[in-house]
Design brief:
By secondary structure, the protein is α/β, with parallel strands linked by helices. The chain is built from twelve helices and 18 strands.
């Protein structure tokens, strides 16, 4: 029985999937999409435009006339991964166009890989298209090259990411995302809903709502646009009316988040909140330039659970932040004990070129960061195992992501997002089930991160 490793990086998107065939003579573009789900959506938009112009999409370097590498610049380790991917694409193909967050630093990229054809920053779709046109001219066949109404999707047919805004207005010292992606810019609600409706009509069963700061949606609009704190709640309610699962990611714990919880209790939105708390000690949060309200956050969590007892809370944290003392770290462990979060990811602090946290004093030695990460994950793992053990004997709704050749179905409950959370495995009685189906499963076994069960007799 497979288990998810406890050190999954919470900034990574699911692996892009390519399924189409290529006609004779069709120009072909390869795509390497790195980083978070927001970058994956950018890749989908680029490929949708290219597909509409007659290009085919290749899942590998060898079958492509050129390769686009959509990079990540979130951490120095992510930058190194992006540079490695660019180098691999140059070696295997030779014609490489770079875009994405690391593309905001073209000199840095060209210093390592001077042979690349072009560099563009995040969301610069037109510049990417211009670079592709200059390298591989389009050759559309209007009788054959039909584009799906929903565009090109890099995720399985039954779930899709729905990006509701770009950018961020926070000034966290460890993060350079606002420098790369700009200030908050919310998409019009009508455009978001129109996209969501098309996805659901095409068979999508789960909408994963993403942005850099989901709960800030609409707060950048003029004051005459109405109560700016209500826009996210209104959008969630409208999305919930479409009949698909709606999962909210990257939700900051603003006071108005409590207005979302009744929607979860009523079944309009999945009872799941992905909230990046980052730490719990007020001094660490102050050095991060984060709201230092860990105690009040515990009160909010208790209030959320009183309204929606089944809510699943996921969060990410940073250990070894500059200046973090053993006392501050212990406060984080104690807070985690009290908060009893369901799903937890953790980073060891890394310097990122351009981040203000680099200049902070008292950086934590690597061996101390590793020790704290180990201790943190040990506690988080124990909490996760206890939470999952309590689900044994219960019947849960689950969406089927895959059924392998041995008939084992990999599913997710309402409390599990793709790739970053656990799975529910059905290892018997899967005859007649299909990928994308939502089924009821009786849980009969629990591990540290995953569940196992069998289809309920009442399904």
């Amino acid at each position: 029985m497979a288990q998810n490793p406890p050190n999954l990086r919470p900034d990574l998107a699911p692996r892009a999937r390519f399924t189409e065939t290529v006609r004779d003579g069709q120009p072909t573009i390869g795509m390497v999409s790195l980083g978070c789900p927001k970058a994956l959506v950018d890749s989908e938009r680029i490929l949708t435009r290219l597909r509409a112009e007659g290009y085919a999409i290749s899942p590998d370097y060898a079958g492509a006339d050129a390769v686009i590498v959509n990079t990540c610049g979130f951490l120095d380790s992510a930058k190194a991964e992006s540079l490695d991917a660019i180098g691999e694409a140059l070696t295997e193909n030779g014609k490489v166009i770079v875009t994405g967050c690391l593309g905001a630093e073209p000199d840095y990229i060209r210093a390592h890989h001077p042979r690349i054809l072009a560099v563009t920053g995040p969301q610069q779709y037109e510049q990417v298209l211009d670079a592709v046109h200059a390298t591989v001219p389009p050759s559309p066949d209007p009788f054959i090259d039909l584009l799906p109404a929903t565009g090109v999707s890099l995720t399985p047919r039954h779930y899709s990411y729905l990006k509701i805004s770009e950018g961020c207005n926070h000034a966290c010292k460890f993060c350079i995302i606002p420098d790369m992606r700009g200030k908050l810019a919310s998409r019009p609600a009508k455009a978001v809903l129109r996209e969501a409706e098309k996805l659901v009509e095409a068979g999508v069963k789960e909408l994963l709502v993403i942005s850099q700061d989901t709960s800030a949606y609409g707060t950048d609009w003029p004051r005459d646009a109405g109560d700016r704190t209500a826009h996210m709640t209104n959008l969630a309610r409208d999305l919930g009316s479409l009949g698909a699962w709606v999962r909210l990611h990257y939700v900051y714990p603003y006071p108005h988040v409590r207005d979302l919880i009744p929607l979860m209790a009523d079944g309009l939105v999945l009872p799941y909140l992905d909230i990046p708390f980052q730490h719990a000690h007020p001094e660490t949060l102050r050095r991060m330039a984060r709201p230092a309200a860990a105690a009040r956050t515990l009160d909010e969590i208790a209030a959320w659970r009183s309204v929606c007892p089944d809510i699943t809370l996921r969060s990410t944290f940073i250990v070894g932040y500059p200046g973090e003392t053993e006392e501050e770290f212990q406060t984080l462990l104690d807070w985690l004990d009290e908060a009893q979060l369901d799903r937890v990811g953790c980073f060891q602090y890394e310097n990122v070129d351009g981040a203000r946290s680099n200049a902070l004093p008292n950086h934590v030695p690597a061996e101390v960061k590793q020790d704290r990460w180990d201790r943190f994950m040990e506690k988080a793992q124990a909490i996760s195992e206890a939470k999952l053990t309590a689900k044994v004997g219960k019947v849960l709704d689950a969406i089927i992501d895959d059924i392998d050749e041995d008939g084992i179905a990999t599913c997710r409950t309402k409390g599990d997002a793709p790739e970053i959370d656990g799975n529910l495995f059905i290892d018997e009685g899967t005859e007649g089930l299909s990928v994308g189906e939502i089924v009821q499963v009786e849980v009969d076994e629990a591990g540290e991160y995953d569940l196992w069960g069998r289809p309920s007799v009442n399904r």
